[in-house]
């Protein structure tokens, strides 16, 4: 089985995911569940409700039932696996958990969520404390919300919902960043990722620092580094943003872009072009046929904060992908 944790976290706050409903959050807010950062812990740090935890923690149940939290996915998609991380929760983690999901249009409120026809993706499973509990998902339908159930109560640091992004074509403009992870763009291969994974280049927003991007080790040969991106849909590209922000003494000297068509032909989109350190570059691209993948070459090595590829996507492809994922 492939490692589903290499897929994007659809619930992440980085994509706009959020907790919209929780049965209880007496000791620690459920909002922590979707933070993109790894959970931390400061022992013997207390506030008026007890030890401070970087996670969601409910009070001790003295009545029947169980606790739950509903998460609106930052981007809808097909879920391949979930991670219920109980990091630093030792004597207060839930002994069991399950996960349900639903696909709802728009922005449903608590009443709509309560009345929804939820689908069980992960049956009630045993959890371990202070560890990442991982469960594969086989249902290949598209979902917009998930509900984490914990039995009967306790604390969970993070909920990761790994999967493949499937956006709603009706909500996409005619021209958009078809490399963006939030729309389904993803890295499928690269030459080196010693200091940073290239998937970070496709994340929303500006890079926060040099660690929030792709950076390779220093080359000691005559070759160059590269990354191959699968676009959200085949597209005719018009502009490219190559952002070297925060990379000052380690920005690439030059870069080039090559598109790959459905027939496997390679077309030049941006010839080898000089880059400046710590600069957000925008380049018009050579008019070319529709491409489904793009290769970014950097010369000879270095770091790139963000890669944006703006173009007109194949709407038929987007709608076909959507239809494929809404039926059982």
From TrEMBL:
It catalyses: allantoate + H2O = (S)-ureidoglycolate + urea. It is an enzyme of class 3 (hydrolase). It comes from the Bacteria. GO terms for molecular function: allantoicase activity. The keyword rRNA processing does not apply. Its EC number is 3.5.3.4. The keyword Ion transport does not apply. Pathway: Nitrogen metabolism; (S)-allantoin degradation; (S)-ureidoglycolate from allantoate (aminidohydrolase route): step 1/1. SUPFAM superfamilies: Galactose-binding domain-like. One of its GO terms (biological process) is allantoin catabolic process. Residues 16-165, 184-313 form the Allantoicase domain. It holds the Pfam family Allantoicase. Keywords: Hydrolase, Purine metabolism. Belongs to the allantoicase family. This is Probable allantoicase.
């Amino acid at each position: 089985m492939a490692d589903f944790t290499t897929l994007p976290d659809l619930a992440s706050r980085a994509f706009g995911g959020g907790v919209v409903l929780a049965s209880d959050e007496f000791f620690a807010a459920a909002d922590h569940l979707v933070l993109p950062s790894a959970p931390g812990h400061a022992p013997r740090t207390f506030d008026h409700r007890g030890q401070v935890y970087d996670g969601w923690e409910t009070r001790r149940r003295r009545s029947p039932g169980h606790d739950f939290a509903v998460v609106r996915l930052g981007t809808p998609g097909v879920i391949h696996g979930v991670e219920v991380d109980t990091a630093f929760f030792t004597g207060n983690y839930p002994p069991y958990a399950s996960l349900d999901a639903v696909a709802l249009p728009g922005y449903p409120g608590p009443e709509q969520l309560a009345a929804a026809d939820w689908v069980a993706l992960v049956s009630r499973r045993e959890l371990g404390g202070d560890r990442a509990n991982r469960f594969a998902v086989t249902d290949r339908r598209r979902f917009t919300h998930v509900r984490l159930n914990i039995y009967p109560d306790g604390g969970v640091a993070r909920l990761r919902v790994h999967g493949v992004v499937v956006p709603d074509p009706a909500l996409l403009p005619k021209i958009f960043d078809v490399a963006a992870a939030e729309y389904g763009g993803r890295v499928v291969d690269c030459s080196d990722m010693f200091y940073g994974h290239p998937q970070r280049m496709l994340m929303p927003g500006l890079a926060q620092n040099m660690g929030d991007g792709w950076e390779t080790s220093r080359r000691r040969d005559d070759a160059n580094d590269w990354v191959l991106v699968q676009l959200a849909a085949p597209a005719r590209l018009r502009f490219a943003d190559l952002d070297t922000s925060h990379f000052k003494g380690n920005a690439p000297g030059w870069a080039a872009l090559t598109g790959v068509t459905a027939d496997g032909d390679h077309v030049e989109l941006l010839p080898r072009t000089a880059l400046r350190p710590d600069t957000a570059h925008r380049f018009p691209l050579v008019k070319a046929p529709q491409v489904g993948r793009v290769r970014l070459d950097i010369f000879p090595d270095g770091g790139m904060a963000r890669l944006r590829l703006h173009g007109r996507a194949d709407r038929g492809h987007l709608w076909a992908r959507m239809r494929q994922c809404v039926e059982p």
